Amino acid sequence: MRTRECDWIDHAAVWTFDEKSAAITSSPYEIHPRHREELDRWVREDPRLAVTYGGTGWYGNNTFQVNLWRTDRVKVITPA
User: Mean pLDDT throughout 47-59?
Assistant: First the structure.
């Protein structure tokens, strides 16, 4: 069984659209190359997913912003 590495999820918020899960926004203190590799793998395995990185995380305190979402529910999410 393949497992998912989710330690990039810190100070997370899950957003819904039409009462269905649509996006996860996370504010980790750092983004390791392995985090990007894992998220890229998720996107390759499920073409409905997209990911963006950028800006300061909503949590502040030197966190970063990571957004993972379903493009069939939300077309575009632009990082802050």
Answer: 89
